[in-house]
Amino acid sequence: MTIEVRVPQLPESVADATLVSWHKRPGDAVARDENLVDLETDKVVLEVPAPTNGVLKEIRLADGARVTSGQILALIEEGAAAAKDAARPGNVGDTAAGATAATATAAAKLSPAAKRVAEENKVDPKAVIGSGRDGRISKSDVVNYLQAQDAPAASQGAPVPPAAKVPAPATPSPGARGARAEQRVPMTRLRARIAERMVQAQATQALLTSFNEVDLQAVNELRARYKEPFEKQYGVKLGFMSFFAKACIEALRKFPSVNASVEGNDIVYHEYFDIGIAVSTDRGLIVPVLRDADQLSFAEIEKSIANFAGRARAGTITIEELTGGTFTITNGGIFGSLLSTPIVNSPQSAILGMHKIQDRAVVIDGQVVVRPMMYVALTYDHRIIDGREAVQFLVTVKQCLEDPARMVLRI
Q1: Of 115, 191, 277, 331, which is the most exposed, with the fewest CB atoms less than 10 Å away?
Q2: Within 10 Å of residue 142's Cβ, how many Cβ atoms?
Q3: What is the CATH number of domain 189-409?
Q4: Which residues form the catalytic set?
């Protein structure tokens, strides 16, 4: 019996997807729920599992094709035995098939980014040595291969005779310069979507950024005091993000316009707190959402963030988890950023930027002391958020972090 493999139902916010790469080829045996092909949307990479046990009979669409919900991708012959791959001696057709199979096997080890670079530069995957797990070929492996190929060519150019009268410019010889290769790689769906959203936010919103600084001495002392019992009881480390999320929620309660959004000529005030937490991945920045974050404990926030981060980098996070959100927090400090102006995650109206914690000399009660300080930035849509509200929002965040009891007492 022949079973159709179709594109799964895509969410309403996603019109189509791009077929990234097949993990099987016609004639291969497949097991139920085994991943057959990856589909890339502008938010996540979706895996399409085999609906039954059998043999992949036919592939209808090649890599790079645009697909929509319900479209047929392939056919599986249910319960059939896998075809023999061994080539018969003297059979030209079988030899060609064996070569094709070897190329397909090598291509299957390419990451999506590596595959695009290889196709753009007509690189045979079999010639590239993968540095990843099980010989997985990354984009950098392909780029290094191309540079290694270009280097000899650059050094074998025809000699240029010296000018008779005019001194030659003081430039390095081709050999000294090394390879000057360039790579043109199409944007991934996610990167293109990020670019679109960032440009849209700056083009449609009146963005302004306000700054403040926070003394994290009290937070550090709490984390040091309860680090071990917290991790023992909840199975997760007590980080900084839960403190910042709780502090932002208290500030959002006081200044609801920061939690609002613009729809046409209307301002929509959200009476719930869905906090987006920016997560960096190899594919780009994504923002999973903590639903009803005000109802979550410190431990639940830390667990959710750790779960989001792990699944985002593994590519298993769902589109639903990336949809919505009323306010976003991003932490450039983990990369060493001391100060930045984050861009609002449209259609939201504000985003808080965390930065590197750095010991600095500050004056407290007339005394110069060293404290762990962090600059915080609030970028906001000035159309609906006044400067007074933005500044007071940051002051509230600062007060909650410097005196965490405020978050418990709600003052």
Answers
A1: 191
A2: 28
A3: 3.30.559.10
A4: 382, 386
